[in-house]
Write a structure and sequence with these properties.
The protein is mainly alpha-helical. Helix content is 31%, strand content 7%. It has a single domain, classed as Leishmanolysin , domain 2 (Leishmanolysin, domain 2, Alpha-Beta Complex), CATH 3.90.132.10. It has a three-stranded antiparallel beta sheet. The protein is globular and about 40 Å long. It is an enzyme of class 3 (hydrolase).
Length: 139
């Protein structure tokens, strides 16, 4: 029953705001096109969460099936937030939908929010958190 409730909540949130027409495409930030939600409230929350005053918005998923691509937060950036593209994990509701705070990526800066996982790990070889443990084992 809980799984059905989560799925219904995700579909409702999709209809309330996760729509391609409310997104823009940004170029030259990474090596691929990035779709983001750039409304003033989302940009403010993304900047606050990642501690990145130059962040233009919140990145949208670019991988997965037709129901995931462009319909959910980017998994690399938002991990298990309710609107990230996974239905099999326990969800954390972030401030994005005004529920509770999300720890994934919190205060890790612009590089975490805009670079690849590999780049982040290479930039932080002694502490690749949250992608790996200190011993480079998956978390």
């Amino acid at each position: 029953m809980e799984k059905v409730t989560r799925l219904n909540t995700r579909h409702t949130l999709t209809r309330l705001g996760f729509a391609r027409r409310k997104m823009v495409t940004s170029w030259n930030k990474v090596k691929h096109d990035v779709h983001m939600v750039v409304t003033p409230k989302v940009m403010k929350e993304a900047r606050r969460h990642f501690n990145c005053s130059t962040l233009e918005g919140a990145e949208i998923e670019n991988q997965g099936g037709g129901g995931t691509v462009s319909n959910h937060w980017e998994k690399r950036v938002f991990e298990n937030e309710l609107m990230s593209g996974v239905t099999t994990q326990v969800f954390a509701l972030s401030r994005m939908p005004k529920a509770e705070d999300m720890e994934w990526g919190k205060n890790l800066g612009c590089a975490f929010a805009t670079k690849s996982c590999l780049t982040w790990i290479r930039m932080n070889p002694t502490n690749p958190y949250p992608f790996c443990t200190i011993h480079y084992e998956p978390r």
